Amino acid sequence: MPHNSSVSLTGLGGNFQLDHQGTSGGQSYDRTSKRASPSYTGGTDAARIQNSSNEVLRAKRSSGSTKRRAREPSANDTDSVGEDNADNVKRQRNTIAARRYRQKGRDRIAELESALKAAEEERDQLKLQLARKEAEVGALKEIMRK
């Protein structure tokens, strides 16, 4: 005998209750569980109500949930392993390139220091030559005054 029943779902923070007014075809509901528990296996109305309530529960849980499920392994995990390997190769290449760049900078600094040292030595020699020439000019001026 068809029985007019209403099913309402209430819940806070993922705890859902299924309230049912009356019974339909021997179907009874547990007020604290998330599912209807049939008292017998027959009855299309009872199965339809159970399926629809389960769908509503799934829809309710998926919208605005506060907890996230742990990521399930998928076929893309093998791709992520390949991506991790590619990231490692990229990181190694970057490390080698950075090492070469730093070495190139050190080599350039060493080259500039070498050039500076050569320029300082040349300056010192020129200063010495200048001092000799000035001394020679001074000596020649003394000779001219006599």
Characteristic terms for this protein:
about 150 residues; alpha+beta; 2 domains; two-stranded antiparallel ribbon; about 10% strand; rod-shaped; BZIP domain-containing protein; transcription regulation; DNA-binding; DNA-binding transcription activator activity, RNA polymerase II-specific; nucleus
In short:
The protein is α+β, with helices and mostly antiparallel strands.
Notes on the structure:
- The chain folds into 2 domains: 7-62, no CATH class; 84-146.
- The chain has helices at residues 44-62, 76-145; strands at 7-12, 15-20, 27-29, 36-38.
- The chain has 146 residues and is of the alpha+beta class.
- Strand 3 (27-29) and strand 4 form a beta hairpin.
- It is found in: Nucleus.
- Residues 18-42 have a biased composition (Polar residues).
Characterize the largest beta sheet: strand count, sense, and whether it forms a barrel: 2 strands, antiparallel
Q: Which structural class matches the secondary elements?
A: alpha+beta
Number of strands: 4
Number of helices: 2
Q: In total, how many domains does the architecture comprise?
A: 2
